[in-house]
Amino acid sequence: MRASEMLEPTGCAVCGAALTEDHWRTHHAEKTMVTCPDCKGKKEKVYWGCPGLKRIVLPCDRCAGVGIVSSDWELWKILGLNLQIDRENRDVSLREEAKRRKMSASELSRMERGIIKPQD
Length: 120
Hints:
The protein is of the alpha+beta class. The protein has four helices and four strands; from the N terminus they run αββββααα. Strand 2 and strand 3 form a beta hairpin. Helix 3 crosses helix 4 (105-112). It starts with 20 loop residues before the first helix and ends in an 8-residue tail after the last helix.
């Protein structure tokens, strides 16, 4: 599924207002830490993998096993999705775009998924 086919979040998890970069700068400028939305503060995630649906427990990739993330994580997710949509609209692969940006493909992937702060 292309990123442009995904539903975008409609409101701020903190106050319910429309999610825009300007909203975050004006209403939530303080850099607070919040419970990780992926692991719910448990610091790890459970996956099921082969062989035989073996239970695998790994550190959460969003919070790097800390259990908390920057309150900007929602903004990062939206900005990252916009990067991915732009790249896909230009029919450029993740590896090609990463090479153009002089970064690793895994770093660009983490930016597009909102795990790390996207760069322009």
